[in-house]
Design goal:
heterodimer, A: alpha+beta, five-stranded mixed beta sheet, B: alpha+beta, Immunoglobulin-like, five-stranded antiparallel beta sheet, 9 strands, flat
């Protein structure tokens, strides 16, 4: 409805004329009644509530939403996911190659995706995103996958591998399969379930990071893993909550602590369903961005905002020039205000 | 001997009466201890939250919510216009079955803009409240109270009073003319019944499911119809004179129309408070025109009686006054369930009045020796419906 300045004017003027007239018509008894009415309504007005609201209002203008700093299971999981890298159980093959064995189970779990909101998820090892698997280029990776979920699932890895290790074959409930291949190329690759209907299986939470370090190690840095995703609560094909690592406003509640001048490397991917793209924007600073991180000769973007299509990923390298709180969020304002927002606290 | 036997019989009677209840109590005890034996697993959590009222203040929104679902509900987060937003709850974010709570949301709403308030429960269910066009909800102060009174006055008392002023004119009609006027009244009352039931059903459908709002309309209608009929039949033996009878019918019409106007006031007050209706000059004039015929309807049965000025004043207040009360209730404490019930009661009252007036028409026609559905009578009825329909075009929003 368009705003019509005449509307309120005409209404007000009618009532004004009327208010004068009614006084004569209805007499003073009505005044008494109305005074009573006014008083009782005032008693409900809770002065205290009013003041709290006023304070919140000021805050609301700057943030709109304050998730608080309470520790909740969802928040702790998201904080843990930042720096938990699973290097597997290491052994050496007859040819002298490093073999890494990982154990992944799928099961259905109730997740906390925003403070107090539960989501019936499908998980790898009980978390969304699943575990961050990490190895070095040329390693033999052996992923033992067991399906303890009520639905058939699989793990499809991005990267170069034989097609029979591609994870297209559904593993039935109670089934087990071993995916084995040589890890290549170096870079950040997602893995996810590839059982149809795809959108449903991925959206429910079956995905994670697979980091292949180059043989010549990258520069030492504080390393963080961030999976951008969304949750559709009412299954209408639209996300209601957006997060990084599965919990809305996680790093607003618990800002990520880094040091001034320290190199920070972020492995960032987009596993959001339903929305084609997601993005990353850093406040008050610039960063280098290596799409996929596979090409050692690639020239990075130097920017403060990048976007990723579904399944796209890359590596961000950044140093913070001075102490302070640096905000980061999706530059789709909608995603930002629905959970995808955080801070670096640079000391 | 005889009394002892009777006593024993009485005891047996009591026992027989109580036995099903005792068995029921036993059954409930068994079920609550061991369960029903029917699997209780649900595919998805069942939660029902009703957003009863959204109040806009300088500080933001105050949302009154009712849990009409089968279980306790916890509101985990509030999303306003697609953004998570701070909220506080009085008394609590966790609401028991049939309990209610108020959500305070400090939000910089924009006058005239639509806003959407989403409540997300701990189980991830979403309940949405819409603000069609944001406008500060009028505070319940003396000024506002007077303004609502005035609206009710325009919509109820003035038109009914003006309609009654046709009395001296109609009184000069012949008996057949009076019959036609009464048929006209039946026509407009018929329109009012349909309109009242329709509005009642609409409100009832919007009311929380547990209260069976639409059912309340029908229950209210049937019960008020039978109640008025019972009053009529028990008192008709005492007052046989046509004089009193006409007056009584007039008061009953005024009462029924009063209930209808109460409902109308409710709708206007609520729409006004919600910022949905801009009650401009046009709309108020429309309602005045629409309701002026109600005065004619009330006056029609009096044509053979000898009413005093006091009677007319009383009739105008009874028929139009409730519009004022309705506007207050609608503007300050609107409740769909109650409104649906009011509409139902109003409809029943009007139906009973139609029944009585129709009987009067038939009786008069018999004494005159004319057909009861004569062409003048039929035309009167059609005209009644048409006038109401035509003037309703001015006020449907």
């Amino acid at each position: 409805m368009a705003f019509d300045p005449n509307r309120s004017f005409s209404r007000r003027s009618i009532l004004k004329v009327g208010a004068a007239g009614i006084a004569g018509i209805l007499g003073s008894s009505l005044f008494n009644t109305s005074a009573l009415f006014g008083k009782s309504a005032h008693a409900m007005g809770k002065d205290e509530m009013h003041h709290t609201l006023k304070d919140q209002m000021k805050q609301g203008m700057s943030h709109g939403y304050d998730p608080g700093t309470d520790s909740t299971p969802g928040l702790e999981a998201a904080v843990k996911a930042l720096t938990a890298f699973d290097y597997g159980v290491v052994s050496v093959s007859a040819e002298g190659k490093t073999i890494r064995e990982y154990d992944i189970q799928a099961w259905d779990a109730e997740l906390e995706i925003a403070k107090g909101i539960k989501f019936p998820g499908w998980t790898f090892n009980g978390t969304v995103p699943g575990p961050t698997l990490r190895c070095t280029e040329g390693d033999i990776v052996r992923i033992k996958f067991g399906n303890g979920s009520a639905h058939p699932h699989s793990i499809h890895f991005h990267g170069i591998h034989p097609t029979n290790m591609d994870g297209l074959e559904p593993v039935p409930t109670g089934g087990e399969v071993v995916y084995e291949f040589e890890a290549k190329p170096a870079g950040l690759h997602p893995f996810h379930c590839h059982v149809p209907p795809l959108a449903r299986h991925i959206h429910k939470g079956l995905y994670g990071h697979f980091i292949i370090d180059p043989k010549k190690p990258r520069k030492p840095a504080k390393e963080l893993s961030m999976v951008m995703n969304g949750f559709d609560l009412d299954l209408d094909g639209e996300n209601e909550v957006y997060t990084v690592n599965g919990y809305a406003f996680a790093y607003q509640s618990r800002p990520i602590k880094v040091k001034t001048g320290e190199l920070v490397r972020i492995y960032l991917s987009n596993l959001t369903e339903f929305d084609p793209i997601n993005s990353f924007h850093l406040h008050a600073n610039f960063f280098h961005y290596y799409a996929t991180g596979a090409d050692p000769e690639a020239r990075p973007y130097y920017t403060d905002t990048i976007m990723q299509c579904q399944g796209e990923r890359g590596i961000i390298e950044v140093t913070f020039p001075a102490p302070g709180k640096y905000m980061f969020h999706a530059h789709q304002s909608e995603f930002t205000e629905l959970g995808w927002m955080g801070f670096f606290e640079v000391g | 001997m005889e009394t002892a036997h009777k006593k024993k019989n009485n005891q047996l009677l009591w026992l027989l009466g109580l036995m099903p209840l005792l068995l029921l109590a036993g059954m409930i005890a068994v079920i609550s201890t061991w369960g029903t034996g029917v699997k209780e697993e649900q595919a998805a959590p069942i939660e029902v939250l009703n957003i009863e009222r959204i109040i806009l203040t300088d500080d933001g929104f105050e949302v009154r919510i009712l849990n009409s679902g089968p279980k306790e509900v916890t509101v985990a987060q509030v999303v306003v216009d697609g953004a998570f937003w701070n909220a506080s709850y009085v008394p609590s974010a966790t609401i028991e079955r049939l309990g209610s709570s108020t959500v305070f949301i400090p939000y910089p709403w924009v006058e005239g803009d639509p806003h959407e308030i989403k409540l997300i429960t701990s189980n991830g269910l979403i309940f949405i409240g819409d603000v069609v066009a944001a406008m500060k909800t009028p505070a319940a102060d003396a000024n506002r109270f007077l303004q609502y009174s005035l609206i009710g006055f325009y919509v109820g008392v003035i038109p009914v009073g003006l309609g009654l002023l046709w009395y001296p004119f109609m009184r000069r009609f012949s008996s057949r003319g009076i019959q036609a006027v009464m048929a006209f009244t039946v026509g407009l009352l018929f329109f009012l019944v349909v309109d009242t039931i329709q509005e009642g059903l609409e409100l009832g459908a919007a009311a929380p499911g547990v209260f069976q709002g639409t059912g309340l309309v029908w229950f209210g209608a049937l019960l008020s119809f039978l109640f008025l009929l019972a009053i009529d039949q028990s008192s008709s033996k005492r007052a046989e004179k046509g004089n009193d009878n006409g007056k009584r019918v007039s008061f009953k019409i005024a009462g029924g129309i009063g209930l209808h106007n109460l409902g109308e006031g409710l709708a206007i007050g609520a729409a006004f408070a919600a910022g949905e209706a801009a009650l401009g000059t046009f709309l108020i004039v429309g309602f005045t025109l629409h309701n002026i015929t109600e005065g004619i309807g009330i006056a029609a049965p009096l044509l053979k009686a000898k009413p005093t000025i006091k009677t007319f004043l009383a009739l105008a207040v009874l028929g139009g006054g409730p519009a004022i009360i309705g506007t207050w209730i609608g503007g300050f404490v609107f409740n769909q369930t109650l409104a649906a019930l009011f509409f139902g009661i109003g409809a029943g009252a009007i139906i009973q009045v139609i029944y009585v007036i129709s009987k009067m028409v038939v009786r008069d026609a018999k004494t005159e020796g004319t057909p009861s559905v004569s062409w003048p009578n039929f035309s009167g009825l059609v005209l009644g419906v048409l006038v109401m329909y035509g003037t309703a075009l001015l006020v449907n929003f």
